[in-house]
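Minutes, methods subgroup
Present: GH (chair), OT, SY

1. OT presented the first of two proteins processed in the latest run. Sequence and structure tokens recorded below as shown on screen.
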Amino acid sequence: MSSTRLLIDHRSPAVLRHPEKARHPEKVNRPDNPIQRKPDWIRVRAPNHPVYHETRALMREHKLVTVCEEAACPNIGECWSQRHATMMIMGEICTRACAFCNVRTGQPDALDAGEPGRVADAVARLALRHVVITSVDRDDLPDGGAAHFAAVIAAIRNAAPGTTIEILTPDFLRKAGALERVVAARPDVFNHNLETVPRLYPTIRPGARYFQSLRLLDQVKQLDPAIFTKSGLMVGLGEQRLEILQVMDDLRVAEIDFLTLGQYLQPSVKHAAVDRFVTPDEFADYAGMARAKGFLQVSATPLTRSSYHADADFAALRAERARRQDACA
């Protein structure tokens, strides 16, 4: 299903022909990058499972946005058929304009004070063991949305006390005190994606700073060592193998527990081009290298995304920490 249909209420014929004009006005004048044919190993079936439609209906009923739709995730059929939906808070419009991202860019609306309660109710009704909450970047807010993250975490704790909570946050660039407020809410997992190697930040993630993102993750561990930390990279954007290995080392210095690696897939002709499709064997090699460097948990496959199989991965992550602690006792 195309997420564009959900976002454009008053569509002109021009927008219908060129939906990227509505979602990504800053990209309209960029040259086209033809979308390459995907190899067999990353093709997925169209969603049609009855539970998928039940999950979709619940999101609509609660007026919730999901990154599954907004980012055009290829795993939406599988995840929603298992009642796993990653909710995206603080609206559907991002203040950043990353070259890889399909989330709409523009001026966001005001925060919805009722959103934390609706998110919590949906989590409870889905009976989730583990939930992932992410957001758009909200550079327009004094705290980058930190207080809203904390409110969502508190609401879920109240409505579904048995559910473990994973958050995938922005970088809170130049938002003093924001990170401390989110960490104080005690999520079980704090995820912030580096996305790519430092060399590619100016073209792929121009609104962010590599070392700010790395420092953010390091600070989480300093503030609360009990919180699991997690980060992810896309591959296939033109990075080199040694650059990926260097990022792994940087993350281990920051004591990151969980690393995800997945194939970048180009959302439209106006987004950054896929440099190449990384093979499953190469992903297996990266996974082996990451485990050797000491990560507690690694997910590295072409279809890996930050929240893909997050519930099972969290159980494995927690078990591996306990195993290592017992081994050191």
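2. SY then presented the second protein from the same run.
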Amino acid sequence: MDSKISNIQRLSNPTAYWSSVSGFIALMLLVMGAVYYATVTVEYQWRWYKAPKYFMYIETVTIYADSNGEVKEIKANKDKFDLTITDDLGDKTYTVPKGSFEFDEGDFTSPGDIIAEYEGGWKPGLLAIGLWTTLKISFISTILGILLGIIGGVARVSDTPILKWTAITYVEIIRGSPLLVQIMIAYFVLGTTINKLLSMNGFGIIDPEWYGIAALSVFTGAYVVEIVRAGIGAIHPGQVEAARSGGMTYFQCMYHIILPQALKTILPPLAGQFINLIKDSSLLGMIAIRELTKATREGITTSLQAFELWILCAILYLLMTFTLSMCVQYLERRTATK
């Protein structure tokens, strides 16, 4: 008998197991059918065929005339044409593909006339842009949040009052206020002040994304502090005493002895925190950052495809969080074998 099979697995009934699987599938089909019936009831028109353009699309380039002018010259340029138009401001030359214009030399143009119209290259759609922004912001915020959390966690368990009390104050203030409020303060209060000082001294202003990243990093770091503190607390104090008696400093002991062992304990709650970070990034749309949720809202405004785009948005968030969860589970297995 295979020793790897648990007693529960030996006592389980295969018929009951497959009946349970069939029940789960039937339940999922029932839910999807209910959603479809609800949309039919409200006479919603599904248009999934339009969804791909929100990921990638071929750009249509349209060139308009700025003022009254005249087509001065049309000259072949390899597989394209150089279209020269003269007006009160001088000559303007447009390089456009063959068949993209209907002018001849000597024709006149008026403001708003279409000089040329042709298909450009592939461009990322709204959802692709929003997905990339969410991934970038979440990745940077995760790294910064980990650094803040580890530093704060080590300070939190320190016996030095300035370190311990500073870490406690940081955690209590950040965890005791809503993330949305912190984002608003970071952008409208700190951001306005910092950008004003920078512009007064001849420097460029900081992009709103960085204020959003700062708010997410500080917010996540406060929770990571408590996770790290709990992980350190799970290590027997005798190991700290042994390391200190061996000549290690407090920070050397933490870096070489305590934190590597605490990592196994803190990985699962860290994964949950960073999954929340990905979802919390949707609040950055409030400060005009085009992350995934804001990009979805913009797409719905122009297309009125509310059901399709919100479903796609939810699937993309699910893919990001599920991938992160799988990566953390892999790290747990790797650390458990060492």
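Chair's summary of item 2: The mean pLDDT is 83.
Next meeting: continue with the remaining queue.
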